[in-house]
Amino acid sequence: MPKVSVIIPNYNHAPYLQQRIQSVLNQTFQDFDLTYLDDASTDDSNAVFKQFEPQPRIKAIYNDLNSASPFKQWNKGVRATTGEYIWIAESDDVADPNFLATLLPVLDRNPNVGLAHCQSCRIDPNNVVVTQSLREWVEDLSADRWSHDFVANGLSECQKYLVFRNTIPNASAVLIRRSVYEAIGGAEESLILTGDWMTWIRILLKSDIAFCAQILNSFRTHNSSVSSRSYLNGTEICEYMLIRQTLEESNIQLPTQTLAKIKEQSIDNWVNLTFNPESTIGLKDHLKFYRLAKKTGSHTEITILRRLAHYLRHQTTRKIRPWVPKSIMSAWDNLKIEKPIPSK
What are the strands, taking DSSP E only, across 89-168? Predict the structure, then answer.
């Protein structure tokens, strides 16, 4: 049995696939097998992979139909492999040769750690470094936390950081302990955008986390219509609500003020999206969001109406300010339009 099972889920990443696979094969730690999962690509991905297929530790799984979910591919790859640790090496990213050699000993030394991840840089389709480090993604949560190595309690990590944002933004930077991945039932396949975020949370509700500040992963970013469509139809906001609901229902203590703030932010986003002329949300989407909001706390109707009032007031103010006398606008700006939320 190999120490590590490397899983490369791919869909139409032919331009990057050779570099990705080669960066895995060039690892200084070599006790691994590699499974390539193609999700019914329509480009030359499989032709690119063919040059690597003859190697005995490499195998391929080809889908006849697209699964429409990278997280289904994650689980399919894990079920087809046996390594003690799992590396989901996304097909358009690139690894430093010392990725495994650096992260694997951390997991070996710390049996309570369910996942270890490293710092990443951001590259464009031409391998040009766009961002030297992804620290900017999390610096508003903590100025120096991700500037040094650490091992931390998983529950605390969820409570302080993952409740606000996916602080592990690229799966290629993560090495996972198989036993914990299997204990949580694998990745959440019903989520389109945030299945990775949900997976990290579920792992850390059962185990601890380790971080390496060394940049050992290059995260490639390029235009994606999927994320744009998912925002406009409300999927992104609903998935965020599901994640916060999962945390609220877990065995960690989250401050009431924090939960209320997160809920209001989600409702703000939904109200703004409702009035976006490019929005594609329909009645079923509104009902789905309302039900999710109801599950994440009380006074949902009051909160929605209050945020709607704020939105309409802001839009009205923006339109009338240029031609209304300053004295009237001053009175308008000072007008109180909300009542406090009643206590239970």
Answer: 94-95, 113-123, 129-131, 150-152
Is the torsion defined by CA of 190, 193, 195, 198 positive or negative?
A: negative
* Tokens describing residue 163: 């409740």
CB 219 within 8 A of CB 93: yes
Residue type (1 letter), 222: H
Residue ranges covered by each domain of the chain: 4-222, 239-333
Distance in angstroms (rounded) separating the CA atoms of residues 142 and 133: 15
CA 16 to the chain's CA centroid: 21
Q: Are strands 113-123 and 174-177 parallel, antiparallel or unpaired?
A: antiparallel
Give the whole-angstrom CA distance, residue 99 versus residue 104. 8
Strands (E), the chain: 4-10, 32-38, 58-62, 85-88, 94-95, 113-123, 129-131, 150-152, 174-177, 208-220
CB neighbours of residue 186 within 10 Å = 18
Spatial distance between the Cα atoms of 228 and 141, rounded to a whole number of angstroms: 25
Dig out the tokens for 263 from the structure.
């809920």
Residue 184 to residue 71: CA distance in whole angstroms: 14
115-170 residue pLDDT tens: 999 999 999 999 999 999 999 989 999 989 999 999 999 999 999 999 888 999 99
Instruction: Using CB atoms within 10 Å of the CB of residue 130, give its burial: 0 to 12 exposed, 13 to 18 middle, 19+ buried.
Output: exposed
Give the residue carrying structure tokens 């009338």. 320
The answer to whether the CB of 179 falls within 8 A of the CB of 96 is no
Longest dimension (CA), the chain: 80
CATH architecture of the domain with residue range 4-222? Alpha-Beta Complex (3.90)
Query: Cβ distance 165 to 138 under 8 Å?
Result: yes
- Write down the pTM of the prediction: 0.82
Q: Is the pLDDT of residue 6 over 80?
A: yes
Distance of CA 296 to CAs 3, 242, 271, 300, 339, Å? 41, 9, 17, 9, 21
